[in-house]
Design brief:
The structure is a homodimer of 212-residue chains. By secondary structure, chain A is mainly α. The first copy, chain A, has two domains: 17-100, Winged helix-like DNA-binding domain superfamily/Winged helix DNA-binding domain (Arc Repressor Mutant, subunit A), CATH 1.10.10.10; 116-195. Helix content of chain A is 56%, strand content 6%. Chain A has a two-stranded antiparallel sheet with strand order 1-2. Chain A is elongated, with a radius of gyration of 23 Å. Residues 1-13 and 199-212 of chain A have low confidence and may be disordered. Chains A and B meet through helix 2, helix 5, strand 3, helix 6 and helix 7 of A and helix 2, helix 3, helix 5, strand 3 and helix 6 of B. Strand 3 (112-114) of chain A pairs antiparallel with strand 3 (112-114) of chain B, so a sheet runs across the interface. Chain A binds a DNA duplex (28 and 28 nucleotides) through residues 1-3, 9, 15, 18, 20, 35-38, 54-58, 60-61, 82-86. Chains A, B: This is PadR family transcriptional regulator. Chains A, B: Residues 24-99 form the Transcription regulator PadR N-terminal domain. Chains A, B: It holds the Pfam family PadR.
DNA sequence: TTGCCCATGTAATTTGTTACATGATTTA
DNA sequence: TAAATCATGTAACAAATTACATGGGCAA
């Protein structure tokens, strides 16, 4: 390990919360009390588009941790019921901690993309050209569906003045999906150019230089 | 659990490999033998931009699994050394399995994006407007750096005809970063529009708060 | 001779998923 | 009254990271 990397280590005893915890707390930072189930559904129609879509079990786990930390508080509906419906709300401590995380000077870090189609394009020498083209077309179709979902969410959020920032993020996401569509079209063109005129080498073997 | 979700369950005994295993095998699918260390460096200058950047320990673990499955084979340099340098190559079985995965009819699934800046924008009500603007600017600066890195990788791959598909993916990534830059600029504009007219009125300006 | 890069690996821990179990309420 | 949705949770496991340990080769 290099020295510069060493300097990135944590010295503090209290360990940092993972992004998921902050995201859950972030959902809670908007007015109202809600259940874990509701949080999950909400995330799937908002944060999913640019950040995160966790398993429901993960939401419940994070809510328990947040409550332990005093960042969230819950009230069950039935008095002494086992596993009763539980509505969560953010606490003052939670709001402060979240504001420190979201509005602090710490770097948000680079966006991380995991694009399965692109990995397959990168590995294009292993697939039939027509199969590759079909994958791109499927991707375009799905992206159109996603764009529609973003716009649906935007139609809801766009009305309410309290949702101004979420609407902003969704607007970004709308543009991002439009760009993804253009990227897909360009990819299809590039793919055709590779396959069509010159008929570039699709053979797997034969020697070649090592990368790097 | 709904019925439609139930149908997605696996019935097969042999469990599917995670994407990381296929990505490592994918790196190995290009001619030449290489060490885990080299694989990591290569991934960080290629797949990182659109798919994946694993911990080095994860690479070593996957290589061991791949060898156990008979998908990869290794040869150590020193004869009986402990922990000697180990160069890996893909096997025929590995190539077949990979081709089945990458070129098969299975859906690549939707791309997943984790954009820390956007989460913070979504949570904009918790931060100072100027801090938010600074974050966007930092993001633009970093994206410019990433774009330069993509182009550097492209300059290397673009020459060799064997790297035609990797070059295609990198070309996609170049365009994607250009789009990300435009998205960031638009976000800055939207942010200013949100902050400007509703905030303190500047008497000299009057109206027309949207900058070019 | 210090420090960086190359190179491989183990251990501990955390994060996150899938599968399972349970039951209430709502809708067709 | 059957099915879907709402709602919470546990258990097992898989994936992945961080920290640590080790040591060779090379260059300022």
């Amino acid at each position: 390990m290099t020295n510069s990397q060493k300097q990135k280590k944590q010295e503090s005893g209290k360990r940092e919360l993972p992004p998921t915890a902050w995201a859950v707390l972030g959902l809670l930072s908007f007015p109202g009390e809600r259940t874990g189930y509701e949080l999950k559904k909400w995330a799937d129609s908002s944060l999913r588009f640019f950040y995160w879509s966790p398993a429901i079990s993960q939401i419940y786990a994070e809510l328990r941790r947040l409550e332990e930390l005093g960042y969230a508080a819950s009230a069950r509906s039935g008095p002494e019921e086992v596993r009763a419906k539980r509505r969560y709300a953010i606490t003052e401590a939670g709001r402060e901690a979240l504001a420190g995380w979201a509005g602090g000077t710490a770097d948000a870090g680079p966006p991380v993309l995991k694009h399965g189609l692109l990995l397959r394009v990168w590995l294009g020498h292993l697939a039939e050209p027509e199969r590759l083209r079909a994958m791109v077309d499927e991707h375009l179709e799905r992206t159109r569906g996603e764009l529609a979902a973003v716009r649906e969410a935007l139609a809801e959020a766009g009305e309410v003045p309290e949702w101004a920032f979420p609407a902003l993020a969704l607007r970004w996401s709308e543009r991002q999906h439009l760009a993804e569509l253009e990227l897909g079209e360009a990819l299809r063109t590039d793919l055709a150019a590779l396959d069509g005129p010159a008929g570039v080498a699709r053979q797997a073997d034969g020697d070649a230089p090592t990368p790097g």
